[in-house]
Amino acid sequence: MREQLTSFPADPVTQPIPLVTAHVPARVEPPPPTPERTRTGNRLNGLDLLRALASCLVFYTHVSTWYRFKQDPMPFSQVIDDLLVGPLHLNDELGFLGVALFFLISGFVMAHVATRERTGEFAVKRVLRIFPTLIVAVLVAWILVNVGLYAVPGGESAGVGDLFANMFLVTFFVEGLAPLVGVAWTLVQQLAVYAMIGSLLVVFRRAPWLVIAIQITLCFVLVSVMANFTGPGAVSTANIGAYGTAIVLGEVIWLVWKGRAPMWAGLLLGLGCWVVFMWGDTLGYHLADDSYPLTLLLATLVVILAVVASDRVPRLRVVTYLSSRSYAVYLVHQTVAFTVLALLWPDVPSSVAVAVAIAGTLLVAELVHRSVERPCAKLANVLARRFAR
User: How far is CA 48 from CA 34, 277, 321, 322, in A?
Assistant: First the structure.
């Protein structure tokens, strides 16, 4: 058997915490969870563009890291290092940039829908958006691990306990479990912030700035208190505070864009997010290097620009396609790409192998999108109408 993928050192996307060890159909529909519109009623095409870009960035991060771990870096990686990573002092392999964009966009969108949905509707839509696709992605990774085509930190095999723990994100809180979908750590932060919004939904509709201030305070408390404890559960809980403020910062952008708070209030709340994020960085929760604050700053400026200029951003078919499948791509790309690369390396040049990995990732993401995401989106809409009665 060819040499299979082995677990490699923690990178800023797959392992942000010291655990043990994102075809073209006949009609391209808009992404299910993105009802955001400009004041003129048009979609925020700028955010769709950033979703597609974030998917590409996360894919590049992992593929480039994989080749560097094999001591066979892609030529393109050196170009990225010379043009972007070095001059802008970003994370190696652009590690946090794609995730930061996803965090900010997620916060923006969730703030937008929170003003329109009831508590039950909000909860059901978030659960049906997050978990079904995650469960399928985990199942695919679990099967590939147990047939020897894919390896994860923690062992050469994964049991039934690992399977179910990963499906519901327990992996990141309990020691000794193998993380099958490494990027799923970000879902812990998103679900925690969604829970904060959902529990204060009535207040959010009337005074969103107050709920945002409460979220910033909770993030500060979590990262400060959990710093006194050890273990994966404490670290994952602290990460809600350390990274959750990036999601809350997306809410702040929405707050000012929507005119629900003056610019000065938005700047103060944004500063609060930044202070807590920097506090988490000081406590060591942003691993790998010291570029996380600068990366978040760059991502924030890019998102603000995309929101402001959305009326001028054309709606491209390929962008809509990637944007609508960005979540499926995000969850399956690592499993699919690493399996393909392990089978082709070192006999096939990286340029060809990466192209095959991209095709395989898009194929699996398309299958997941059609068989899981679309039906779940329809089910969520049906249940939402019942809540509206």
Answer: 9, 26, 9, 8
Burial class (CB in 10 A: 0-12, 13-18, 19+), 3: exposed
Rounded Cα distance, 65 and 352, in Å: 17
3-state secondary structure of 152: strand
**Which of left, alpha, beta for 231 (phi over 0: left; psi -120 to 50: alpha)?**
left
Q: Please, which residues bridge with residue 155 across strands? A: 152
More confident: 357 or 8: 357
Write down the residue that tokens 């929170």 correspond to. Answer: 114
Residue 248 backbone zone (phi > 0: left; psi -120 to 50: alpha; other: beta): alpha
Q: Are 152 and 141 in contact (CB under 8 A)?
A: yes
Instruction: Give the C-alpha separation, 242 to 253, whole Å.
Output: 19
Q: What is the pLDDT of residue 369?
A: 98
This prediction's pTM: 0.88
pLDDT-derived band at 92, boundaries 50, 70, 90? confident
Residues facing residue 152 across a β-bridge: 155
d(CA 2, CA 347): 10
CA distances from 256 to 101, 192, 214, 287 (A): 18, 23, 17, 31
Where does residue 176 fall: left (phi above 0), alpha (psi -120 to 50 degrees), or beta otherwise? left
Long-range contacts of 152-160 (CB under 8 A, 24+ apart): 152/7, 152/178, 152/179, 152/180, 152/182, 153/7, 153/15, 153/19, 153/20, 153/21, 153/178, 153/179, 153/182, 154/7, 154/20, 154/21, 154/178, 154/179
pLDDT in tens, 68-83: 999 999 999 999 999 9
Is residue 135 within a helix (H) or strand (E), and if so which, with residue range? helix 119-146
Widest Cα–Cα separation across the chain: 62
Q: Which of 90, 105, 131 is nearest to 52 (CA)?
A: 105
The answer to whether 13 and 183 are in contact (CB under 8 A) is: yes
| Residue 74, C-beta contacts closer than 8 angstroms, at least 6 positions apart | 63, 64, 67, 350, 351, 354
Yes or no: say if 111 and 255 are a contact pair by the CB < 8 Å rule.
yes
